[in-house]
Amino acid sequence: MSNKVVHALYDDDDVLLSAVKAIRSEKHHIEEVYTPFPVHGLDKALGLEDTRIAIMAFIYGCIGLSVAVAMMNFIMIEDWPQNIGGKPSFSYLENMPAFVPIMFEMTVFFAAHLMVITFYMRSKLWPFKKAENPNPLTTDDKFLVEIELHDNEKALTALLEKSGAIDVSIIEKSE
Amino acid sequence: MYTFPNKLRNLAITFMVVGFLGLAYGFITAPSTVEEAKEMVASSHGDGHGESHAAPADNHADKSAHASSESHEVASEEHAISDHAAGHGEEHNASHDEHLFHQLSNKPWAALYVAAFFFFMISLGVLAFYGIQRAAQAGWSPVLYRVMEGITGYLLPGGIIVIVILALSGMHLNHLFIWMDPEVVAHDKLIAGKTGFLNLPFFLARAVFFLTGWSLYRYFSRKFSLAQDEASDISNHKKNFRISAGFLVFYIVTESIMSWDWVMSIDPHWFSTLFGWYVFASMFVSGITAIALITIYLKSKGYLEFVNDSHIHDLGKFMFGISVFWTYLWFSQFMLIWYSNIPEEVTYFMTRIEDYNLPFFGMVVMNFIFPLLILMNSDYKRINYFIVMAGIVIILGHYMDVFNMIMPSAVGDQWFIGAAEIGGFLFFLGLFIFVVFKELTKAPLLAKGDPYMGESERFHY
To answer: Looking at the structure, do residues A65 and A115 belong to the same domain, yes or no?
Structure first.
């Protein structure tokens, strides 16, 4: 497998979008696109699968809800029942309205935090990780498309330049 | 231009006729004397509906009201007065029978009022939604403006019907609003203290003032909207923006007072500070649902070709979001009162949980759990089938919500979803369809002059 890649730099998100469509219609495989901000519609243009994080969010929310129910049942009913406002805590169900805010908050808490952690793990991001960003310009105002090379340098370079790239360079990846 | 299809017109007229017969049956079979009322309850004993007429007394037997003898006295006094049985706390038979008679004779009136208010509330909710779209200069929704304007066409006729019913109550044809009865007020310190606000002339004047204000906004907004179709500049659009911003301020104040007047004052002893919001959430979600249902209907008939599934998706998001908002308010109101357990407040929920258990909790399933689960998935919000299914349940659920707000104080435990209730719903549903679709035929379905129309037509998610 070749470890040579082409880096094409763009300076406009609309140009980038049409370039991505043109590159994909020529059956080249785009490795990655680096952008300074989320480009609307880029995921569809790249043909990426829909995110499954929504399903995980639902599952995490259910876990949070169960943890809240178990937690409040242990704290308020089993371990240390108290008489609050004339409502003795001997039954979870009869005291349930009081626990609804906690159930809600724990659902949100679990869904939000676990979703963020999932996203980081799925994106292979963790503390002290070295940035994979190949060109610091993409953190400013430029967009970079990375395409793998298979002895088709000339055709690909011509296509990229035609699609509006401001700079095309061939990089040897050191792995 | 849209033409009112004959099939739909006939359906609307059939609904009205059937509904009218149902209501008429309800009024004819309502007891006209105390003896008749006693007989009716005696003969329906044990058939499972309406429990038994001993239930109001059971209310006080609840352990929380019994926590102290003081609170029991207050609670039972509350109950006796709010159901205008003159006997203070004494549950002797004569006053109980009269109380029963009032409840049963209220029943067809309450059925009429619930349905009239519910459909009026839908068009008022849509008017608020429309005003928000105008004031926010929304880019996604202009393709739906004509549908919204069609629905708000019901505002004036529907509002007049509600005010007529309120005026008839003021003429003592029924006992929906017990504070309108000077006899009751004379024996009731709490209501007597509120007569500065709760008196008939001021009450009706407020009602007329509110309806006039809303109708004026509706009239001018519609006028500017139609004028914008042919205009060469956007001055009409700007005027619409300005009056919409003004209307929203007027609306949120008057809607709140309207909900105290028309709904909360049925229970003149009880009050809740977030009641205006609660009624607002209910009318807002029913209104948005009505927009979605009518849009999908028109689209299925080949109209509104410029509405795409992203518009339906957005309406679905609103249906989902406002359903959750409604639940938040419903629960906030419930939890604070449940927790503090103050007798004069908690009677409100005690009657609902004891006598209205199924409608009260069934409504939470219909208005919260069902739409929550059905509309949570992003893809489902783009599928008409799911929106229609969720929409019908939400509409019926919010009818139940209004039912739960009005019936317990009007008919007590004598509620029953029978000919009068179904008839009332069908009658106003027919009238609503008739007026709304009539209004839709009066203007092109695309507000083509709107400066945001291009953005709205291209709108995609």
So the answer is: yes
Residues A91-128: tens digit of each pLDDT = 999 899 999 999 999 999 999 999 999 999 988 888 88
Residue A144 sits in the same domain as residue A102: no
Both A26 and A76 in one domain: the answer is no
Q: Are residues A61 and A113 located together in one domain of the fold?
A: yes
Residue A162 lies in a domain: yes
What's the domain count of chain A?
Answer: 2
A43 occurs within a structural domain:
no
Are A86 and B67 within 8 A, CB to CB?
A: yes
- Token pair listed for A128: 């002290």
User: For B26-30, B95-99, B150-154, B358-362, which range has the lowest pLDDT when averaged over its residues?
Assistant: B95-99
Q: For residues A57 and A18, state if they share a domain.
A: no
pLDDT digits (tens, 9 = 90+) for A136-161: 888 999 999 998 888 788 888 888 88
**Interface residue B64 vs chain A (CB under 8 A):** yes
CATH number at residue A146: 3.30.70.120
How many independent structural domains does chain B possess? 1
- Mean pLDDT on B321-329: 96
Q: Is residue A129 part of a domain?
A: no
Range of the domain at A160: 4-36+140-172
Residues of B in contact with A54 (CB under 8 A): 377-378
Q: What is the DSSP string of A91-140?
A: -TTTTHHHHHHHHHHHHHHHHHHHHHHHHHHHTT--TTPPP--S-GGGGT
Tokens of B27: 């009024």
Q: Are residues A58 and A10 in the same domain?
A: no
Asked if A22 and A69 sit in the same domain, the reply is no
At residue B70, the pLDDT reads 42
Inter-chain CB proximity A85 and B376 less than 8 Å = no
Q: Are B434 and B34 in contact (CB under 8 A)?
A: no
3 state SS of A167: strand
> B64 CA to chain A: closest CA distance, Å?
8
Upper half-sphere CA count for residue B310 (Cβ side, 13 Å): 12
N residues, chain A: 175
Same domain, A61 and A118: yes
The C-alpha atoms of residue B179 and residue B161 are separated, in whole angstroms, by 21
In a domain, B1, yes or no: no
The predicted model scores a pTM of: 0.85
Q: Are B452 and B306 in contact (CB under 8 A)?
A: no
pLDDT digits (tens, 9 = 90+) for B170-208: 998 888 998 998 888 888 888 999 999 999 999 999 999
Distance from CA of B417 to the nearest CA of A (A): 29
Angle B341-B325-B318 (CA atoms, 0-180°, nearest 5)?
A: 165
**Which DSSP state fits A148?**
E
Q: Round to whole Å and give the CA distance between B178 and B172.
A: 9
Q: Is B83's pLDDT higher than 50?
A: no
